[in-house]
Fold each of these.
Amino acid sequence: MTAEDLYERYQTASTAHRTHHGTCTTCTDTERCPAGQRLFESFTRLQDAYLNRQRAQRR
């Protein structure tokens, strides 16, 4: 997977999470419904992977 692919997946996950958060009546900034939690975890996992890859490339 290239850095560009990882970035695209990370941004897609971010959009999915934000869209869900904006429409879900259960999710708050500190509590998430099961679907919101899954989307948030996917976003954070991909964000961490992308940022770690960026850091590794700078070394």
Amino acid sequence: MLGSRIREWGPLDWCVAVVIVLALVAGGIYGGSKLLRRCDNGLSEIDGQCIGVTTESFEADDDIGSLLDAIADENHRVASESGTPYVRIALMTAFTSGDRSAMTSDMIRRALAGSLAALQEANAGAGGPQVQLMLAPIGQQLDQWRPVVEKLDTLADDKDHPLVGVTGIPSSQTDTRRALEELSASKIPTVGPVINASSMNFDYFFKTSPDDKQFANALRHYLDTYPQGRKKGLLLLDRHTGDVYSKDLTDTLENRFGKDYGLTTNPSLFTGSSGSDEGEPGIFFDAVGKICNQGTDTVFFAGRDQDLPGFIDALSDEGSCTHGKPLRILKTGIGLEPTLTRPEVERDLKKANATIVDAASFDPRWEKAGSTDRPAGVDDFLDRFNTLKTAHTLGAKPLADGYAASYYDGLRLLTEAMKRTFADMNKDSDSEQLPTRQELYTTLSQSTVNSSGMLQGATGTYGFAAQDTHNRWSTCKPVPVVEFPPRRHDRKLSLYRTYDNNDCPG
């Protein structure tokens, strides 16, 4: 064998070798490119996450990949249509989730689905420029906002395709407050689709959701309509120091209900699952003990929805509990988060003889035609959303938490205002001019209450009052109150609407 003659390669051998090498090189380039392109096209990797501003898809949570691809495809289509003017709007939010992140993976993908529905609707309609939706990830804790805001400010100065606004901002906390201060200093109109903390007020920040004070008014309306028990209350609040939402809601609940329900002298604190504070999340021993020993009939929950099932489970496990029955657990939020209506939670609620009472921005019952107080604009939203629901995996009860409908409204507020601004600017002009951030801000700052400028959105028909009124919180916004499990009542609860001076449309 050692002495045998080695066969020389012929032409066929060399061809095969070249093909194999090229295949390996191509595979290596592709695989390496995929790794290298993880955070490119305007993005940089910071702490293992893609941060920045882009019109392209990128690596994020696994279950939002198809939605990011669909947005990128729409952006490519807009840019490829020669001669068609377009502007840009940024979706500034979290695109990754974790055990203690600001948004759950379900919230992220439903927010993206609602935004995509609004983008498709804006670009399908005649008149006005097309829209690119720029994706602006700021990290799962929403703390990597500085390079993003700096880039957005630069993009707003683009003469050809200016960035005219921002939507997203999914949580009221210290970092998002600072980000909004900078966005306002840069004079970029920004919309908060799911912001509820009443202290989140900045000159260029418009909120399409109700604030905690308006939610509390809706709960007061509910309690006055359906009085029950001896008004023995307990305030259950998240101890996180950086959570502006929980702090503002705690202050509001104490102011609205403290005296009548004895809240100021009887709170119970827990460590929530969102945030980075020390402490074991989901410990409710103190709260359950107080509820059972003091005959509590009304719990006022000042925390995040994802922590509520743990409390309900702890309450149901207390077999000798003698709370005021039935117990009502009052909360506020965008919708009724699907984890709150799972069979095991419903079982625990029935075992504890308790009901969730949620003052919300979206009522899941509105999905059904003919439902009570159903907004006029919900059908246009559902036409788009139901198509996306077929094409993408959006999870169980994808409308229930209200995120899809709210993010749809947030982007639509900007696109509708942009098209009105464009039409006004060019009605007497021979050459078309694109609106800028300042011109869009001027349009948004005009009163639209009871006018053609009111938004017919998925979460209601509403507008904004004059520039310095109500701190740019939406006016005439419906605030439905949803019970789970639903209870029987001898009369209908009338719909509360924000800042209603008997001038809101029917």
Amino acid sequence: MRQIRTRLLTAGQWCAALSLFAAPINKPATTALIVLSLFFSLLGADVRSRWQAALREPVVIGFLIWFAVLFASALHSTLLHDAPAYRESSLWSCIYPALMASLLRDSRWRWRALLAFAVAAGLVVLISYLMQFGLVPQRAIAEATPSMRNTVFKEYTQQGLASLILMSMLVAVALKSPSPRLRKILLLVAAVVLCNVVLVIQSRTTYIVLLPLLAYWIYRLVAHHLNGWRTLLVSAVLAVATITALWSTPSIRERMVSAVTEEVDDYLTTQEPTSSGIRLWLWQHTLPIIGDAPVFGHGLNRWEPIYREQMRTIPDSAPFITGHPHQELLLILAEEGTVGLLIFTALLLGLAYHASKLGDPQKGILTSIVIIYFAAGLANGLWSNFTHRHVFILLVACIPAGAFPWYAKDRKIESTP
């Protein structure tokens, strides 16, 4: 019986690792693998000790605190509005870190999970390039929506953010690689991935994320060679130069300067429902919703019905109706109030602090994920989206505490008499 339960545990570990492969690619496969992971975790060996250990991990504790906030928000929604929200996947997905921790107890398993994500994101980048050069046909949706050109499985923002995470993983591992040759290869691949984001996908959200993300990695690269005030000075100069160079590229200048200016002008003059105009409209009409319940919000999943009710009194507002306000902080303020936003901010800062205490390359990977999530959330709704939410949660849950496999191996060899 013990042998059977051990094999079930191993099966659960593979399902958990493969869920990160599926997350940036396919929603049903991601859900199926998570359900199988839970099934095998509960039936596998040492279930009690594994879950007890999982519940002591800092990341798991943080997500359980946010689960408690969202559960209280769902209760608030039920009691005041008779609108139960307990089935919301955004609520129960906060349990995933505990599930991952109960299965991936060994750092090697967590590195395998991160590798699974990197392989999936890398394949997407490769296919995207093949689409760009006409070697793989474009998806049917690209004919009706040109912005979806060169997207493989997901829309351009989802694919772009996953690619930025892949780029960050490659740079983080490269900086700690014991092999100069491998370091150069990893940095070259990271540059190829960056070119795909900037020149091929051309998502505005990824362009917004690029500013703080590149600034962070430039600082890390400089700090790898310099110390003290010179690090800050050289980092600042290189960051300004790099961002200026990127900003001058035709794709970024067109998408972030010319197009945004035109869209805002069209919205202000004719109420044209452009991408930028819709966001301005959403943010403007979310503020009164926040003002009606500033402390505790209206409850989980209440923004959309309140907003739709508000739109019924406004003629020609149909093009501006969406499922979320395209701004993470505004959504939290509307549904969980100022109290919820303060807790969310504290948890995000806690996650950044936890990242700072890790060794490399885990430190760089987790810090990049936090930067990407926060920056992208300024102009988009990540928690409301299945792919964004699952990629973020699963990656954060699988950041290992132990060293990268080859570092551990090298230290073992060096310590051998």
Amino acid sequence: MNWRKSSYSDGGDGDTCVEIAEAGPRIAVRDSKAPARATLSFPAPAFTALIDHLKEHPWSDARISG
């Protein structure tokens, strides 16, 4: 698989983000700090919907109550 990091990856070693790769009709996601560990995969349309939602509702602006 051809893994790629976000252009928004944190500074330093650039290892504080996730990486994604196309895997047929799915998108695979892994932790860039531990690439040998397990990956998650999502149907491409579901991953696109997740990214679109995050763009509209950034998690960093969210307030968690509890």
